[in-house]
């Protein structure tokens, strides 16, 4: 069964929606909420994990609670031949919590968490030998990280499963 078929199933969408809201939900509670037996619900979750539609479960922490009061986005335009070095360097710096290869004049955008603004120089200096950087400091985050919207369950896929 391909991922599009698995993702289109209304029960699977319901499972993902429930786990999105509470990833620590027990199989028993999940089964009760979707109207299935525990083994059937567990099998569905395992199938969603195996297919990659559920890519994992993670703990979100507040960077400020651990002394990282500054969040910044750094765009990097590599010098010729330095593209792989920037990706490798980003992977090796713990303050870099995200690194994306992007289109446009810049090739990378990084998200970094820092204890203070003075620490920004230490991170940027490591990248400046490989290219130009442009940095934006985050003032506020009105939208917290979230998953993409889930498809609406179609009446047809619900009818097939009944």
| Unreliable spans | 155-162
Number of helices: 7
**Count of separate structural domains:** 2
Tell me the overall shape. Answer: elongated
| CATH superfamily annotation of the largest domain | Lrp/AsnC effector binding domain/regulation of amino acid metabolism (RAM) domain
Largest sheet data? 4 strands, antiparallel
Proportion of helical residues: 40-55%
Whole-number average pLDDT? Answer: 90
Which helices and strands, and how do they pair?
Blueprint: H1 3-8, H2 10-21, H3 27-34, H4 38-51, E1 70-78, H5 83-92, E2 96-101, E3 108-114, H6 119-128, E4 131-137, H7 155-161
Antiparallel strand pairs: 1-3, 1-4, 2-3
Describe this protein's structure:
Helices cover 41% and strands 18% of the residues. With 162 residues, the chain is α+β, with helices and mostly antiparallel strands. The protein folds into two domains: 3-58, Arc Repressor Mutant, subunit A (Orthogonal Bundle), CATH 1.10.10.10; 63-137, Lrp/AsnC effector binding domain/regulation of amino acid metabolism (RAM) domain (Alpha-Beta Plaits). It has a four-stranded antiparallel sheet, covered by helices on one side. Helix 3 (27-34) crosses helix 4 (38-51). The longest helix has 14 residues, at 38-51. Mean pLDDT is 90; it is low at 155-162.
Give a brief description.
By secondary structure, the protein is α+β, with helices and mostly antiparallel strands.
């Amino acid at each position: 069964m391909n991922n599009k078929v698995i993702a289109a199933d209304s029960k699977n969408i319901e499972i993902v929606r429930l786990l999105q809201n509470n990833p620590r939900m027990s199989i028993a509670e999940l089964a009760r909420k979707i109207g299935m037996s525990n083994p059937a619900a567990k099998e569905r979750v395992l199938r969603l994990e195996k297919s990659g539609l559920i890519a994992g479960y993670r703990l979100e922490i507040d960077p400020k609670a651990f002394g990282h009061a500054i969040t910044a986005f750094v765009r990097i335009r590599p010098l010729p031949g330095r593209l792989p070095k920037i990706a490798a360097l980003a992977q090796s710096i713990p303050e870099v919590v995200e690194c994306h290869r992007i289109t446009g004049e810049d090739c990378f955008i990084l998200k970094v968490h820092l204890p203070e603004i003075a620490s920004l120089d230490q991170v940027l200096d490591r990248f400046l030998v490989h290219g130009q950087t442009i940095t934006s400091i985050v003032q506020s985050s009105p939208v917290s990280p979230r998953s993409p919207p889930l498809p609406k369950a179609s009446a047809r896929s619900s009818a097939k499963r009944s």
